[in-house]
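pinned: reference chain
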Amino acid sequence: MTATLSKNDAREIDEFKVNHPIGKLLIQMKEAWKFDIGDVLIRHRMTSSDMLIDLISDVCPIPRKFKVVFIDDLGMIWIKQLSVRGGLGDKIIPMVEGWSNGKYKYAVDPEQIDSILLGYTYDPRIEYRKMRNENKEYGKRTPK
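pinned: its C-alpha cells
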C-alpha cells in the first residue's frame, strides 16, 4: 500500500535530498558511482577552489590508482589502492569515506577508457613504466 504524500511531505523529502549530507551522498552515489568490480580509478583531492589529481608523491608524479574489489548489497563500493608495481594494498577502503567529507572524488582511470576505445590491453602501470623507461635512474638508490 502506498501512502499519498502532502505537498509539504514531498517538499521535505526533496529538501533532504538537496540539503542533508546523507541525502546529498546518496544522490551522488546513485548518479556518479557507476563503477564495476575490476575498474581502476584515480582520485581527485578537493580543495576550496580546485580539484587536483592525487599523485603518489612529488618524486613519482603519477596518479594514485585504486581498484574496485567489491560492491556490497547497499551499493557501497569498496576499493584497494594499487601499488606502482601492480599489487593491491592490504587495506580495503569504502569509497564513501573520502567522498562524504568532500575530500575526494573518484573517476575511472583515463588509461582504462583509452584502452577500451583504442583496443589495446589495459595495464594500470603504463604511466609508471613510461616514467621508469624515460628516467633509468628513477628508483635506484644512490651510494652513501
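why pinned: Strands lie at 40-46, 51-53, 65-71, 77-82, 93-94, 104-108. The first helix runs from residue 7 to 19.
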